[in-house]
Amino acid sequence: MKRVMMLGLTLLALAACETIEGAGKDIEKAGQAISEAAR
């Protein structure tokens, strides 16, 4: 039972990391677009 819970938590953490990384890339692209528009 503990092994299943640990596996589930590990998979959840990995999925969260991917989501945060993707959001960071989107925010970076938006910042670049704003910078270019300001020029």
From TrEMBL:
GO terms for biological process: response to toxic substance. Keywords: Cell membrane, Lipoprotein, Membrane, Palmitate, Signal. GO terms for cellular component: membrane. It comes from the Bacteria. The keyword Signal applies. The keyword Membrane applies. Belongs to the EcnA/EcnB lipoprotein family. This is Entericidin EcnA/B family protein. The lineage of its organism: Bacteria, Pseudomonadati, Pseudomonadota, Alphaproteobacteria, Rhodobacterales.
